[in-house]
Structures are given as C-alpha cells and as structure tokens.
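Hi R.,

Here are the chain sequences for the assembly we discussed:
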Amino acid sequence: MTLNRAATPEHGSHDALHEHELGFWRKYIFSTDHKIIGIQYGFTSLFFLFFGFTLMMLMRWQLAYPGEPIPGLYFIIPVAAVGGVIAILTGIKRSFLSLAGVVFIGLAAVVWFLVTGEERMPEGIMLPEFYNQLGAMHGTIMVFLGIVPLAVGAFGNYVVPLQIGAPDMAFPKLNMASYWVYFVGGLVMLISFFVPGGAANSGWTSYPPLADIATTGQTLWLLGMVFIITSSLLGSINFITTIIQLRAKGLSFMRLPFFVWAQFVTAFLLLLGFPPLEAAAVMQFMDRLVGTSFFLPSGLVVSGVPLEVSGGGSPLLWQHLFWFLAHPEVYVLILPALGIIAEVIANNTRKPLWGYKSMVYSVIFIGFMSFIVWAHHMFLTGMGTVISAFFQTTTMIISIPSVVILTALFVSLWGASIRFNTPMLFALAFLPMFGIGGLTGLPLGLAPTDIPLHDTYYVIGHFHYIVAPGTIFALFAGIYYWFPKVTGRRLNETLGKIHFWGSFVAMNFIFMPMLIQGLAGVSRRLWDGGAQFAHAQEVLYLNEVMSIAAWVLAIFQLPFVFNFFRSIRSGKKVSENTWEATTLEWTAAPTPPPHGNFPVVPEVHRGPYEYSVPGQEKDYTPQNQLVEA
Amino acid sequence: MKSETAEDIKKHVRVYVAVFVALAALTLITVGASTLQVSTGVHIAIALVIAAVKGSLVASYFMHLISERKVIFGVLIFTVIFFAGLLFFPVSDLSFRGSTENVP
Amino acid sequence: MEIPYTATLRPDTGVYNAKLGTWLFLASEVMLFGAMFSSYILLRVGATEWPHGADILSVPIGTFNTLVLIASSVTMVMSWASLKMKDFRKFKIFMGLTILLALVFLVVKSFEYNDKFSHHLFPATSTYLAIYFTLTGLHALHIVGGVIVNSYFWGIGSKMWNTDPERFTNRVEVAGLYWHFVDLVWIFLFPVLYLL
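And here is the predicted structure of the full complex:
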C-alpha cells in the first residue's frame, strides 16, 4: 500500500519499512495503532460491562428474595452458554476471537466461585458483607472499567484520529501504554474478589472511616484505581494533543464533528479531575498501610475498641477530593454518548444538526462548570448554608447547557427524513431517557428537596436512567453505527431491533420503580432491599418486578452478543460509506482503514454535517469534497 | 517558541544565571523572614508571596512561559482556576459549619 | 507512517506535539499536588494544635536542599541551551550535574527521614507528620522519576543526537519542563512545611 502525502514530508521516525514486517505480537497485542488499541479497549470494556452486569444480577436475586438460597446454576449456565456460543461462532482453533468464548467460560467459573463460597453465600444465601462487595464492585467496574474505557478508550481512540484526518494519535506508544495499564488495573480489581475478606465493600465511593478499616480488598481497590487513573491521564494527554495538533488542513475547530468536541472536553475533565482522587487514594493507602489519620477523626471507636491512631483527620476531606473527580466523572460518562448520538442523528435525519454552535459552546461550558458543582453530593453532611447555596446555584446553572444540547438534538429531528435503522432507534430512545434522567436530577441538586431523597433509590434511579438507557444506548448506537467501518460488514438489522426493543422496555421496568421506591424513602445499599423497614413495605413488591426485568434485560443482550460475533465473520458486506455519511472516517478512509488510515491525506473544505444541501447531486456532501469554483 | 539562533541562546544564558541568583537570594530572604516576630497570618502571606515570585521566575524563564504560545496558556488558565477552587472550597466548607467543637 | 509535528512546529499553534503533551501532563500534576496542598490546609485549619515546622524539621538542611534543587534547575536549562548551541559536550556536563544534584537532594532527604524515624516520629504519629511525609515522599518519587528520565537522556538516549538532533533537543527541553516543575513544587513545599 502506498502512502502518498499531500503535505511536505516531516522529520520524524523513519520506521516505515519496519512496520510492514511486524510480527503477531507487535501487530495485535502490543500494537501502537490507534485502531487496534481501540478494538482492544472495546473487547475488554465490553467484557467488564458484562461482568459488572452479572454482579448486579446476583444482587437482584437477593433484593427480590432476601435470604433465599440462590439457584446459582441459573446464573452460571447462561454465562457459560454465551461463552460456548461465541467460541463456536468464531471457530474454535481458527480465530483468536474464540478467546472471547474462553473468557466467558472463565467468567462462569468466577461466578460459580462467588456463589459457592462459604464466606460469601453459605448454602446459597447471600451474606450482607458479600452484598456490599457486589454493590461496591458493580459500581466501580461499570463506571471505571466498563463505560469510560468503552466510550473514550474504544470509541474515542478508534474514531477521533479518523474524523480529524490524522494518521494516528499524537503519541502512539503512550496510547499502547494506556491500554495495558488499564488492563492491569482491571486485573487487580478482579483479583480483589479472591483475597481473604473479598473485594472492596465500602461503596464505589469508598468513604472513610469505613473504607480506612475495611478488609484487604479495599487496598486492592485503591491500587487498581491508581492504575486506572494513570491510564486515563496518559490517554487524555494523547487525546487533547491529537485534536489540537493533528487536525487535517482546513479542519478548523468549528468544523469538527460534535463527537470530536465531546471527546475533547471529556479529555480535559479526565486530565484535571482525576489527580485529586489519585492524591486521595494515596492518602487512604497511607491510612490503611502506614497508620496515618488523614481521614480518621479523633476518638473513633470501632466495635467498642478505640482506634489506636493519632486522629485529627477528616472524613469530609475524602469526600471533597473524591467528588472533585467524581462529579466531572459523570460528565465523562455522558459527553462521549452525546457525541455519538449527535453523529447518528445527523446522519439518519439527512440534515445538519440544529444549533451546532450552541452545542459546542454548551459542551465547553458544561466542561468548565462540572468542576465547581461537586459538593452537591455532600449537602447532607452538615454543610453550612453559604457554601450550600453556592453549589446549589452552580448545579442549577449547569443544567442549562445540558438542556440546550438535548433540545438541539430534539429539534434536529424536525422536518427530517428519518431512517429508522438500529443505531437511530437507540439514538431516538436516548433522548427521552436522558431527559428523564436529567430532570430527576434537579430535585437532587437543590438541598431542601435533596433531604428526603439523598442516598435513596431515587438517586440510583436518576443516575441509572442517564447511564443505562442513556449512555449505554448511545454506546450501542455507536457499535451498530461504526461496526461496518471497523469490520467491513453490517450487524443484522432484525437482531438489532430485537436487542433494542427488549432492552428499552426492560430498562424502564428496572429503573422507573427505583424512582418510586426512593420517593417512598427506601435507602440505597440495603442488602435486603428495605425489607426490614416499615416505610418500605408498600413498595417492596417492586423489588421482584425490577429483578425480573433485570434478568429479562440480560436475555435480550444475547441476540446482541450472537449478532456481534457472528457478523464479524459472516455479516453482510458493505460499501466504503455504509451510511452515506459526511465525516472523514467514512469519506476519506478505506473500510476497514489500513495502518496510517488515509491513502491520500484529506483536506477539509466544509462543515461536518452538510446533508441535503440544495443544488448538490447527493443528499450528503463529504467534508473533504472540493468546493466547486 | 520560535526557532532561535545560537546568539539568542547566549542571551538566555545570562538571564538563567540572573534568575538563579534571584532565586537563591529569595530563598535566603524567605528563611530570614520566617524568624520575624509577626502573626501567623502575616507569616503565611509573606511566605506565599515570596514562593509565588520564585515560582513565577522558574515558570517564566526556565520553563520559557514568558515567550510561550497561546495554546499553552489556554490549558494553564483553566488549571489555575480549578486549582484555586480545589484549594478554597474544602477548607471553606469545613470552616463555615457553625460549631467547631465536633469538627470531624 | 509518520506523525506530523513531532519535531517541527505546527504553524497555527506554534508548538510541537511533545511540548503540548508535557504541559498537559504538568497541568495534571498541578492538580495532584494541589489536592495535597488542599489537604494540608484543611487538616491544619481543622486541627486543635499544629507544630511550627522549624520545631520538627531542620531549616538549614531544608534551605540547603532548596538551593541544591534550584541549582539543578539551572544546570538542566543550561543542558538544553548547550544543545541549542550544538555543544554536545557541555550538554553532557550540565545534564550530569543535574542528575548529581538531584541525587544529593535525595540523599539529604533520606538522612532527614532517618532522623525522624530514629526519634520515633512516623507518619502515623500526627497529621502534621502524615502530610509532611506524604507530600515530600510524593515529591521525592517525582525526583526519582526525573533522575531516571534524565539519566536515559544522558546515557543511551543521547544516541539520538547523532541521528535526529532537533528531536533530541526537544526531548531534553520537555524533560526540562518536567524537572523545573518538580523544582517549582519544592519552592512551595519548603516554606509551607519548614517555615510556617
């Protein structure tokens, strides 16, 4: 393959000859190609999403039928079955994809281990300590090992260089390092289940003093987080530098696809938000291993015995440092999703996005504001009124740009020629679901209404609406949308629609009842789902409803897994620009793109969403198409 | 920074030496100032002002910020703002919680 | 396949990739140490009693270490300037001095730590000592990292001077940025921990 460069040759590494001779390990395992790395992130994060989901399904058994022995085989067999199917579909011994099948069977083994342990589920009955491990790890795994690596590591890595006309990321070796550091962090988190005392069990928020004195798993959680944070930091440096420095000629900032803007702002959130949590993790390490009292107050008594520490520390210090990251983190969860939805909507409405400029200014504003709202997670800690008023105000303000973006996406549908393919179905469902999630956040952001709602199931319902039928739907949309680019084949539409409708209905039956339970006052993180509380009795029946819905949701992911692995080998082949899109990844790079991405370096002459331009031959005009004289 | 000639660099060397002398002097001054009999608040102010001056010298001349491009400043300005927030809010929160008897 | 602007400057931004990347990294480090400083402030304000730094730590030793680190910053920028003036020999000398001074700092620090330990003053003893050891420990780890990077550029990494001098000069420049930052952190650490 020849790589003609339209630009003048640069000084730089002259290893063009070497890369054609890369062995298997350098080409697929320790690759520095952003596309391979993106795929690695994709597979790994999807595995973690599946694992985190499995943990939740175990929790939901306990919540629906507290104190009853779990029919473990009903959980293990489906997981193993998925593994077997994948192995068969990808051809045992003929493709390393069958490794995925082996991984799922391994997962089934882990589940078997978890449900049969005496210190976890004696005679199949879940102990509260184990329930707490599941809760803490479900949150941690889904957020840090699942969603963010998928949204940023997989989609960001694969698509951003292509959409800006770059041959790769600015620092390819750093990119590879980011992935492997993430991988190690994930391993550490998995291993934590197997140590004495089990995994971390102080919530994904790891509040001291509890987390300070918790079992060994918490130390591994801290170690895992340090790896994950390091991976994120390296990645965000790469993304920001790439977007600023490697845009193709003619690609000004206001011509960037909104997906790239979203990834750009997200990278800043990760860059500046994560270090305080890293500092806090170091301090919690010190508390646990060296005996310091960063977060331990004076006079703390544990199980009747005064703790032998210097005291003088502050649990609130942890909360401030944790939430300083964790609030921007939730925007890290949603912004890439908004980016994907924007691409899918523009493409399937055959018209430009309405209010592109407002969306760009809004996403920048959200990025900035997200750093000054964090204490709204701490309203009930005894906060003074002045500070509380400040954070309530900033929290209300930040809802405005979010509404602007959602409105722009809705209005983009007006007068459109909508194509109801699978990615678009997910994108359309995203809009009202994210709307519900966002609106339910408003009472949480105001201190008076937060008083009865804080730490109840209302909060869980609120954020799951945003992340599950919100972000995860956007990620599904992204998978269905870009799968053809990566593989040259389409996912099956019928299976996609089954996947969509089943997931959509099931998710609402899981998360809507949470809002109801929360309003009734049912607290979160209760191992029996509120069974022992009088105020919960009227809404307790919803636990069973939600659990059944969760297992139904799991069943509806099977068509997706089947579709995914089958289509890689034998899906319908597609043209270079499957969806007749305008952005560079579709119009200037082959399908799938080779190393270096572009046989001819593209030059951009127009904005990203020139669909249905009057006077043009086709209903889409590629960004790199020359302007007629 | 634009590409510079060897002559330009020689001028820079003189600046580096001057900055070093200034930094060393300020170090000794800050140590001396710490022996003054003033209130804690004044001590803190003096120490931080001197440190800020020293820091600015290192950033401006050793790190070449004084002649650096806009894109770098863009990144740094947001960092400075959030850094300030991180320093200010947690301690303000704890300070304005009414009674300090049971501050955790 | 070549990544553009690894050595040359992108016209509209005026920087090469590694410089932007390094400044971004330093921005994250500002937040890291910022969180530690924030913790220091919060713990001190909330404390019933807080020792004078000078009562526990040795100001003369701290002053000496401060001057050592500042000097290492000068030698670091001089090593880059030498490369810009195409004087490889001088680069080796100045870079070598930088590494040496850094090691002096670390040795002095370890004596300080040992002194505390032998007087039964550990991180667990008080929140002041906890934040002192954690802040200086984190800083010392950064120095170790810098020593490793600088040693690489002084040693095997310096081979790049023969094949791609411009790119090598840039690498030393960004290594310098990191090193100056480490010095900058100490410029604040010293008065906060030793003098206040």
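Chain C has seven helices and no strands. Residues 63 and 180 of chain C are 18 Å apart (CA to CA).

Let me know if anything looks off.

Best,
T.
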